[in-house]
Design brief:
- There is one protein chain.
- The protein contains 12 helices and 9 strands.
- The protein is an alpha/beta fold.
- The protein folds into 2 domains: about 160 residues, no CATH class; about 150 residues, no CATH class.
- A 5-stranded parallel β-sheet has the order 1-3-2-6-9. It has a 4-stranded mixed β-sheet with strand order 5-4-7-8, with no helix packed on it.
- Strand 4 and strand 5 form a beta hairpin.
- The protein is elongated.
- The protein binds iron/sulfur cluster (SF4).
Amino acid sequence: MKVINEPGTTGGPAERPRVAVSSCLLGELVRYNGGHSRDRFLTDELSPYVDWVPVCPEVEAGLGAPRESMRLEESENGPRLLTRTSRVDLTDRVIALAERRAAELDVDGYVFKAKSPTCGIHGVPVYRPGGAPADRRNKGLFSAIVMERHPLLPVEDDGRLHDPLLRENFVERVFAHARLRALLGGDWRPRDLVAFHARHKMQLLAHDPRLYREAGRVVAGAGARPREEVAARYTEVFRSTLATKATTGKNVNVLQHCLGMLDLDPVRRADVVEVIDAYRAGLVPLSVPTTLLRHHARGEAAAWVRDQTYFSPYPDALRLRNHVPG
Ligand code: SF4
């Protein structure tokens, strides 16, 4: 497991994603009870392909492990983070830490620990002072600030990552962010951006056709505008496009588009159409038509289809497209 402890340092090839993570999810003994919340998908399946940037805000705020547990409580100025028994108010300390961490954060995604008053991203209870939960729809104190400062950062919690669709969407976005970061972090030219965009066209189209077209306009004008302006605008549009969820219908559109680019005899074409229809009907997972199309995308004429990141948005070994759409 590759772990980066110094913000801003890279641990592997430029395109290897850097993912911030609540430390307890990697098995570090940082929880209030001295234990951990190791998540097997993260430590066993995703670890070979990403560099982790572990963060435990409560430990970084100077609290040891084990420590007294805490919770969010209502106040006139928003939720406050208090230890349960001794009533120590940690709000200002954690907010200052979150602001600092958010400012220096240079990652392609973030996995938070679910339900934590510090790290949770939804469903965190806020209590009435001394009473029952008043509201269960909140984020943790630390995660709320990170998400506000980085609204287009792929963010999930360990609980939501058990959902195959959410898991695939998160991982796909993380790897796409990493590829763009690697490109724009180097000495790129407009033609490099054109090539990058060409490889990502079908992936973007599967998420948001309108923003896909906007990304194309940014690339088309890249040679006539300052590099920094183009990089900032393309990054915003690229990330926004991927932030919209791909659907079965949009995937079918992309599959049909790719099929139209291939020179297949009628029998093979009919086979692919049949498989796309089976995917649309929810009978087979997305991996079936994508594998078949990739198989048929041979020869020079099919290079454009073959090179699309849509067919290999993350390492194939993760096998995240094997679920049947609901
Ligand atoms: S949930 Fe967050 S604050 Fe709590 S132990 Fe895990 S990393 Fe630390």
